[in-house]
Amino acid sequence: MYATAFLDLPPLHRAGGTVRLPGSKSISNRVLLLAALSQGQTRIEDLLDSDDTRVMLTALDALGCRLQRHGPHSLTVHGLGGQLPVRQASLFLGNAGTAMRPLCAALALLACQHGAAFELSGVARMHERPIGDLADALRQLGCPVQHLGQPGYPPLRVGDGAPHALRLAEPIRVRGDVSSQFLTALLLALPLAAQQQAIEIEVVGELISKPYIEITLALLARFGVAVQRQGWQRFVIPAGSRYASPGQIHVEADASSASYFIALGAIAQPSLGHSGITIEGVGLDSIQGDIRFVEAARAMGAQIEGSANALQVRRGAWPLKAIDLDCNAIPDAAMTLAVLALYADGPCTLRNIASWRVKETDRLAAMRCELSKLGATVEEGPDYLRVHPLPADGRGWQTASIHTYDDHRVAMCFALAAFNPAQLGLRIEDPKCVAKTFPDFFETLFGVCQAQPSHIPVLCIDGPSASGKGTLAAELAARLGYHLLDSGLLYRLVGLAAERAGLDTAAAALQQPQQAAALGRLAQQLLVRFEQGRVWLGHEDVTDEVRSEAAGMAASRVAVVPEVRAALLDLQRNFRRLPGLVADGRDMGSVIFPDAALKVYLTASAAQRAQRRLWQLQERGESATIKDLLADLEARDERDRSRSAAPLKPAEGALLLDNSALSIEQSVQQVLDWWQASPVLRPSAALE
Ligand SMILES: O=C(O)C1=C[C@@H](OP(=O)(O)O)[C@@H](O)[C@H](O)C1
Ligand SMILES: C=C(OP(=O)(O)O)C(=O)O
């Protein structure tokens, strides 16, 4: 997950390959609750691991439900089977509607049956999302429900610690036109009280988001409860209904998450060797209503083939065909259509989406505002959005910093704007908001997208030994969410690998052509990985060894061999991957990435650097004298400056940063300020 303040997307060019998507949020949270309420054990496979499911799991755990983990996506729920081991708890449910609404109903009923009381709260936005209609329905049943903040909104308290008889004889009336989750909540909870008599629910007003009720009914059936219904108005839970665990249940991939990749296939030219995007884990047999996004994308021109559990998407009509669509059945995936509309041949109208106003943010206002930033004309009605496309020749598109309102879907759907024909990059603010349903969304996206190599931004930090390049580069990479190339380590790795292979790395030996050629071959075959601060040579973790002074000296000797430098050139350039790279070394800006967006030449006085090196060694428990260290540094500086291949000097256009008197944070800020001013968010050279 990108936990950075923002993520800059370079212009994207092509896409192709296969994605396996995380589990459905709607199915995961329903299955978790049903399993917890059932008798017996349920093993759940392919469960979504995200903020929304985590709050549900934490709540179930706090309620005394035993959860046995087998892995991040697999667990066994030991059902409560009518018991309630914990009678009082405060549950924090984040911004998960699928946790707040169903738990509110289930706990209200359990609280009445067992004489318990529970408080339910969430993030600030959750306290602006309505729940009053559900509370009203629960009060009809005789359940005490108290709003602890604003009337009609969470936080709330269900139950009052005393048992209450439930009033089940009359139909329970619930409004269906604000959120379908109120009806879902009742449907999931009421089988707890239907042992003796049938319970009827009557929907007041036109039910919205109907396919989500179908998910609820399908999953209730898997847990042994067959709800009878008349259209969308009347639902009956038959007398004698009782949850029965299916034993094992698999969660299909999230169809709303699939919409971003279906859209990707519809707008991106396939990358070489691929015919488009393949999505695995969800297909035409899905029980999720958002699978109907496939029809909308087809109507816009996408070529989609589907099987039970997979989809293949290719770009068809281009520009896309404009649509005018009632999106009430696909409220979540419809946001993706709003961005696809930018690539259409006329204005697209998305209708009947008033519920957008009470989701993670006011999505009608948010989409209008952010689409407008890209240059589009957008009409926002009370319950519709009309998006006028931007020209296919690229004129009129603007780069933008997309505000994401802590709404995962805003972040995910706007990533598709990086395919704009103007080849403009764009910034996604607070990318970690995708954690609600798809923590690895951007990693998955980058796994199938391609940018033109020259568009992938590189920030080079070059400079002499012990100037603090490594620390600065690692911190910058972390703040920008970029890959990191510690090129100094590559040379150290060659040095280490050479010594292990029995090659003589003494300066004199390296003058011999045969020896130099052997070293070049070894460098070419180097199997190196940098992973979470560890360095791997083949299957061996060599993190500590590679940082030793001995490896450093060997690195400095092998680095002057032209054959080694040539072999490492390709290896280093391969680190230039989406979304960008921070490269730390001595010739990053001058030789390896001469077209880098920003080159920094980092220096500090030799005395300062010797002092820092001494502290570093002391921290590791090694001893040295400042005098020796200074002499070593000066000798190494001299060797670096005077070597014939790529001598150490500031690259053309490099900005000089002397950090002798700067803290790490000050250096980081300085470089970030330069980076903000660099051409990353600016039109590509092609259009200038
Ligand atoms: O029941 C569900 O799983 C959901 C129902 C929909 O909400 P509304 O019924 O409020 O539209 C949907 O937007 C939400 O993401 C998930
Ligand atoms: C509306 C959404 O979430 P929630 O389940 O919190 O309602 C959503 O995921 O788009």
Automatic annotation (TrEMBL):
One of its GO terms (molecular function) is dCMP kinase activity. Gene3D superfamilies: Enolpyruvate transferase domain, P-loop containing nucleotide triphosphate hydrolases. Keywords: Amino-acid biosynthesis, Aromatic amino acid biosynthesis, ATP-binding, Cytoplasm, Kinase, Nucleotide-binding, Transferase. Pathway: Metabolic intermediate biosynthesis; chorismate biosynthesis; chorismate from D-erythrose 4-phosphate and phosphoenolpyruvate: step 6/7. GO terms for biological process: amino acid biosynthetic process; aromatic amino acid family biosynthetic process; chorismate biosynthetic process; pyrimidine nucleotide metabolic process. Phosphoenolpyruvate binds at residues 25, 97, 129, 181, 363, 409, 436. Residues 460-673 form the Cytidylate kinase domain. 3-phosphoshikimate binds at residues 25-26, 30, 179-181, 209, 332, 359. The keyword Transferase applies. It is found in: Cytoplasm. It comes from the Bacteria. The active site is at 332 (proton acceptor). Transmembrane segments: none annotated. It catalyses: CMP + ATP = CDP + ADP; dCMP + ATP = dCDP + ADP; 3-phosphoshikimate + phosphoenolpyruvate = 5-O-(1-carboxyvinyl)-3-phosphoshikimate + phosphate. Catalyzes the transfer of the enolpyruvyl moiety of phosphoenolpyruvate (PEP) to the 5-hydroxyl of shikimate-3-phosphate (S3P) to produce enolpyruvyl shikimate-3-phosphate and inorganic phosphate. Monomer. This is Multifunctional fusion protein.
